[in-house]
Specification:
Strands 1-2-3-4-6-5 form a six-stranded mixed β-sheet, with helices on one face. The relative contact order is 0.14. With about 150 residues, the protein is α+β, with helices and mostly antiparallel strands. It is globular. It is built from five helices and six strands, in the order H-H-H-E-E-E-H-E-H-E-E. It has one domain: Gcn5-related N-acetyltransferase (GNAT) (Aminopeptidase). It is about 30% helix and about 25% strand.
């Protein structure tokens, strides 16, 4: 997982302002959103290539910020795996699992400077939340029941 993050320095430099640190993967394992005090609803998913190499990761929290709503806290692919449909396929798999577990909506927070990510999420059916205030990151939502 650390290797994927280190190969994705463009994402980190755009969003955080510096490359990932040597313990970045450990922090992803540990981070929980505000108000969540256990790891039972945290999913860390590997996105693999045909040869089983890890090409990306997704950090997902079930039933946050409310029951029935899931959030993708991080979805990152190494640069050479982008624009091949792997990200969209991963999102569909996450959405399918969410639906199977009773979720009705998905959300993602995207930094406005990350124009490619905003376009990606829009292509996958995510729209700005109705209460969007222009804050960064932008919260995008998708109704899974539609």
């Amino acid at each position: 997982m650390q290797n994927v993050l280190e190969r994705s320095t463009d994402y980190y430099e755009l969003v955080v302002g510096h490359p990932p640190g040597p313990a970045e993967a450990n922090s992803i394992f540990a981070v929980l959103p505000e108000g969540v005090d256990n790891y039972e609803n945290k999913l860390l998913l590997a996105i693999s290539g045909h040869d089983e190499s890890m090409l990306g990761i997704a950090d997902v929290i079930r039933n946050w910020p409310s029951s029935g709503s899931w959030i993708i806290g991080l979805l990152v692919l190494v640069p050479e795996a982008r624009n091949e449909g792997k990200g969209a396929a991963a999102v569909r798999q996450i959405e399918d699992q969410a639906l199977q577990e009773g979720a009705t909506s998905m959300r993602v927070a995207v930094y406005r400077a990350n124009k490619r990510a905003l376009s990606f999420w829009a292509r996958n059916g995510y729209r700005p939340s109705e209460d969007a205030t222009g804050a960064d990151p932008a919260v995008l939502l998708k109704d899974l029941t539609a």
